[in-house]
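subagent[fold] <- orchestrator: predict structure for attached chain, return tokens only, no commentary.
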Amino acid sequence: MPITEFLERNARFHPEEVSLVEINPANQPDRKTTWREYNLIETAEGEKYRRELTWRAFNEGANRFAHLLLSRGLRRGDKVAILMMNCLEWLPVYFGVLKAGAVVVPMNYRYASEEIRYCLELSDARMLVFGPEFTTRINAILPDLTAITDFFFVGKESEVPAYASDYSRMVSYCSPMNPAVAIDDEDDGAIYFSSGTTGFPKAILHRHRALVASALTEQKHHGQTREDVFLCIPPLYHTGAKMHWFGSLVSCSRAVLLRGVSPEWILQAVSEEKATIVWLLVPWAQDILDAIDRGDIDLREYRLSQWRLMHIGAQPVPPSLIKRWQTRFPGQQYDTNYGLSESIGPGCVHLGVENIRKVGAIGVAGYGWEVQILDEHRGPVTPGDVGELAVRGDGVMKCYYKNPEATREILTDDGWLMTGDMARQDEEGFIYLVDRKKDVIITGGENLYPVQIEDFLRAYDKIKDVAVIGLPDERLGEIAAAIIEVKEGMSCTEEEIDQFCLGMPRYKRPRKIIFDTVPRNPTGKIEKPKLRERYRVAKLVERETNR
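subagent[fold] -> orchestrator:
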């Protein structure tokens, strides 16, 4: 069954229940009035603080957009791109594309104009749905977008560009009935883009069966019921946020889209909207804990007793962070998920709330998934040894779109996806990430795994964030360099870090300490290619200067 059938079921059996809520805390006039109380209040510019959508309205909105696309000549398998910030229209647009039998192409909101152009061309997008935040970027490349036949603008009527159609006005003329386009599980459903850590991103093509697999896996792992409320903060263009929300879709439960990531906004959203499940990225969880420690947040001001589950994914989770979290939120369950966009997002490896004793591990094979750890010849490693993690299941991508060579590098003939992540498995079968294959540092013939060094350093109470990268060295080939971001209001010296690192084996200790901010992308992953480029250039300049 296609993923759209869950939406139609929810609209049929629970039409007046709220499906989605959008919160815009930046527009909130004060903390004394709850978001619910000024649900209908607007700013002078017409912006609402809080909007909501029932399951009936959600489904009808998707149907209307599907009819609009079909009326514009959209054919089965055509590609429709979405370039919007999280908002109440995002998911109805997504499902409208699917209901029309087309392939949906979510795009990263951080893309610059050239990246937008590249991804639209790579995916063969025929239509583009975009928000007001992107008009300037699209204007800059408009002459090159000759393959785009229709632009749909989601925003104020007064801001619709001359070349675009007003989404809200156009869908109001369309039928709210199901377009009844036949969709099969083997049909192409979505194209997501890789993080683009090695140049421009690759286009990842998924079938409809992968979308359904991710939904069932998420609901199985976290047991969402109709009573749950999921607070969704990460961007919906990414598989992580979307596929976690799929658990709300399967269970017919409410989700809240929060447009902001400050600790105060997150906790207020949990309190006001009675959220029970929150998916956080490592930096956001750390920011909440740091704000509590500084006294900026008093947990007694919030209603948090209903918050049953906090889970984290998208990057390795420092065990020290979870231990800190448990001291502040002792009655709360914790979970972590591992996944890639190539495996339709989170869940191919899953820790499970019952395995809190294994904090530090990413878990075992997720629901409906198989895992292996393989050597460089793609044979099984000796138990306990480090190898490359491989996964297999219905969520594995069909291919890298229009890139058969890259597809062959990552997909085996028997359906295994080579993740590029180095991992090991303990005697109980739990998997621990060691590092990205391409991030391994080889220094003097020894393999160093930056994640292990980062986890050690994060235990130092002055460190907010850290990234370890390899820098060129004439004698050793590479050396480990630690880029350290110090907590707000604190100072730290290189000597302090060196002293703390005496607790590590000598060969693992960073040979260079750099104090700087640690850049992360919207899904929380450290942008190590940027750091390597920045500091390798600096290292080369230093080397030439000293000659």
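orchestrator: received. Logging for downstream: The domain at 442-546 is CATH 3.30.300.30 (GMP Synthetase; Chain A, domain 3). Residues 40-44, 543-547 have pLDDT under 50 and may be disordered.
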